[in-house]
Every structure is written in structure tokens, then in C-alpha cells.
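Researcher: Let's run the pair from yesterday's discussion. Sequence first, then C-alpha cells, for each.
Model: Starting with the first of the pair.
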Amino acid sequence: MSAGREGVPASPSVAGEGPDLREFAASLRRGEIEDAFQALHGVALEDRQRDLDVPGFALALRDGTRGPWAGAFGDWHRARGVALALDQALPAGSLGKPVAGALAMQAVAAGQLELDGSANAYLQRARLPDAPCGPGDAITVRHLLAHRAGLEPS
């Protein structure tokens, strides 16, 4: 990690909104975060970062009484010794797809979303075209989640 190197902060970059979150973030010590990670995952945060050869990462935490809290650890640019900050964009790849799918299935379980109903029923502004299988056939939420809606890239 970048702790202790010249020009790189030893504590993580923190972000939040409002005075309560800022107080919470300020109340956390780096050691508390590392201890919590090791307790949950059985490995030290810095060791895991080194083992995976990850130069830097962002972490978000929340517990039942405090939070949320977000921090940035490590380097944005290793060779230049530039620390990672929370206002820097990180590539997330296709991470949004499984997260969206999990949230959709939670909404289905709660009765807030119907997989086989028209996806247009849940859209406020945009409208999806008819399904490619035939006029009047609706594109469903299930089609969208399974990437079988037949939509062409624009």
C-alpha cells in the first residue's frame, strides 16, 4: 500500500455527504477498517491487495449504527506514486449486470416487479419497441435480464 511513501497520504481518502457522515468517516481509524476486513475475510487488507496485484481500490462500509463510509486505498498511478482518491473513476467492467440482476430479483421476491410483464410498465420516459418475435409482443423484464430482448445497439 502507499502508506508511508513520500507524497502519498497514510490514511485513506474519504467521502460522504453531510456533517454526520463526515464525523463518522473522521472517527474511523485506518486500523479499524483493516481489522474489520481481516475479521471478515481472514486475510489482511494490504496482503490481499498485494496478492491480487491491485494497485488501488475503493471500499464502502456500512454498519447498523454508523455509515455509510467510503475510502480509497493504494495508488492511482504506481510509477508516479499518485495516491487513489474517491473522485477518480475506476473501471468496473460488467459489475453492474449481476448487481442489477440481484436487485431485480429482490424486487420480484418483494412483489414489486413482475418478470413476465411488459418492461414498459416500469419505464417512466423511454419506451421499448415490440419484441422481435412479433408485433404486439412485449419485451419483458425477464428478456432484459437474460439479454434476450433482441435490442440492437444504437
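Model: Moving on to the second of the pair.
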Amino acid sequence: MRAIVIGAGMFGASTALQLARRGVQVKIFDFAHNGKATMAGAGIVCPWATQIEEPAWYEMYAAGARFYDTLIADLNGAGETDLGYRKVGALVTSQNADDFKAAGARIARRAATAPEAGDVRLLSPKDAQALFPVLKDGLEAWFIPGGARVDARLLSAAMVRQAIALGAEFSNDYVTLVQGPEGTAVRDGSGTLHTADEVIVAGGAWASQILAPLGVDHPVKPQKGQIVHLRLAGVQTAQWPVLLPMTSHYMLAFDDSRIVVGATREVDSGFDYRVTATGQASVLAPPPQVRPACSRPAWPSPPALPMPRLSKRASAFVLPAPRSSRFSAASQVPPGCRSPMALARGASRSGRSRASCWPTS
């Protein structure tokens, strides 16, 4: 069997790897669009905390979280160790007592059938702040040990390398779909046609453009988001959990003394992935669950908190958002190909401002 995978982000890379492991002859085409979600996604993995109840969407997310342990172990066994994945747990909190109680019930219901979520427990304000030091005083939190964060750039690159090691071919090229007498073919940048038994489109926010030549009205459009990176020089943040405050903000930390804060969700923004003053102002507004000083991008002198001076960088992203509530993320993945779901929330690792495009539900 021969398969062509268009897109080498998290979905495409995972699909290509699973097919190659099954002995399928795989060709991967990826144009590396500026602003793609995989290159900028914050990478929160915690389906049990989501407030979205749509069954198909939730099961897709939950299945991805379950698959991570197997995926990471397999990649480690193949010599891939720089994957940017760490199971640090997640804190869910809210200043609204009713919302916080409802979150606890929702998480408990889901965790009861998801052993990978771990032993969910209620933390006192003191214990919650011990795990996430910039958390505001006096807030209880639900702690989900199975929560994780992932650098999608590193993980997707590792999956592509392993697919190639198993015989897959990779091309950094812009391709178009062509409907011929023998079925769908792929035309590369030089005009050469490539045929296969299956053509899998994993193009994220660009999927609609890719499928349009076939007359397919794919119910996805781009959605833009912007985030901020705060660096806490000298502070060890590698083990800090993901903070999910049940608002438009979220926070997560990485190994390099860096906290990511996001995100805006901007509809009808097209593929403009530039950072804007309005978007950054929205993200930098102090989240009510965090000490106010911790949201400021820079200081003329060290803040009065027990932490070093902060430095800041920004990024923005564009993601694919369904135009119809009936559209499920599961429809983007071919049957039998499990793909790790990393809900991209737009982040970058460099000190430059960036943006990305991604699909959401």
C-alpha cells in the first residue's frame, strides 16, 4: 500500500509514523507555512479539564492523551530523547465557587474511566502555590497528575525522522491536489504528479485550501491567537504544572525558566499571524488567579515578589476552527491511525514575536 501525507505537523507526522510502522510506503509533503500551530503551540495535554462536552471532540483529545505514554516510550526506544514532553500535572482553579465545584465534578467523572489522569485531588491554597509559586494567595486547586505539556516542534520532528528511518520519503514542498482519471493525485512544486492508494490531508488551517481543487467544502477556517512568554531568570520552572484557571488565560512553564501565558482567540483574522498591540494587551492583562506583578513584561527594577526580574516576548498564531459544530477533529485523522493530540495554544521558543495557524473545535 502507498500513502501520501500532506502536512508534517503533529497530526501528519504521527499519521506518517504509524503508517510507516505498518509497512505502508509513505510520502510526506510539508510546506512549513509561517504561523503553523505545531511550530507555535503551547502544547497543553489535559483533556479531563476541558469544559467542552462534545463527545466526539472529547474522545479524540482523551485518546491522544492516552496514546502519549506509548508514543514517547516507543520514540525513546528508537533513540529519540529530545521530545519536549513532560508529565508535570495540571492545576485547575477558579475564583468562582460554583465553577470550581462544577470543574471538580467534571474532572472526577472523566478521571474515573481514565487511569492515565492519575489520582486527582483537591489541594489547599498553600499546597497549590507550592507547585505553582506565582499563583495568587488563597486559591484552592484541583490537581491532575496526568496533565502534561509538549513542545510540538520537537515531537513532530522526531516522528518524521522515525518515519523516514522506516522508509518514508519527505519533501519540503508546496503541493496541490488534482483529480485525475485514476483518482486523486498530488502535484509537487516542479509539476510532477504523485499517486497513491490513499492521500491524507493533515494541513491544519490550510486544509480547506488544499481540498478546494477537489470541490470539497472543508468546514474549517483559520482562527488567530496570541500569547506571551515570560522569562524568570534563575528560577527552576521545569516541574511547574500547567495552570488552567477556567478563563481565557492559561499558563504553563518550560525547562528554560520560561512561562507561557495565553491566549486570544480571534475569528475572521485570516492567515495574518502578526502580533498586535491589542492582542498582547489582552494577554498581558493580569489573570485574576495570578499575582499581579507576574503578568508584567519587564521591570525597571526587580519586583517586590520573591523571584528574579522578568523578561518578555510575544507570539501569535492562527488555527483552523470548524465552521460547523458538527465537525469533529476526529474526522481529520484516517481510521486506524492514532495521533497524539496536543491542543496547540500558540507559543514560540525564540525571543521573537511570532504567530501560528491551527484548527480548533
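Researcher: Give me one sentence on the second I can quote.
Model: The first strand starts at residue 2 and ends at 6.
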